[in-house]
Amino acid sequence: xSSSESASDRPVSENSVSENPVSESAGAKEGKAxxxxxxLFLFGVVSLVFRFGGIWSWWALLWAPVFLVAVGISAYEWRxxxxxxxxxxxxxxxxxxxxxxxxxxxxxxxxxxxxx
Length: 116
What we know:
The protein has 3 helices and no strands. It has 116 residues and is mainly alpha-helical. Helix 1 packs antiparallel against helix 2 and helix 1 (37-52) runs parallel beside helix 3 (90-111). Mean pLDDT is 76; it is low at 16-29.
């Protein structure tokens, strides 16, 4: 073998180990899997603030940004769900349902339909 040949020019036999340490199957899952823990946690924080603080007081400085971040996280997680073609474990579907119930309860309190 001459010194002018590069490593990529060498023929690779079937039994040789590839120089690429990442397996081909690992590259198939390149996207992030959806997880509903952050949204669930933030909707829980908003509900606690409503329960122990109040809605239309200075507490709005706390719950309004937290609620908006939780809605933004939920929108991002929905994009991930659609990108993964609706494949999630059963536990994630339960977290999804509880997070959306928390969002609905928070909206109901803000609109005056539900009173704590």
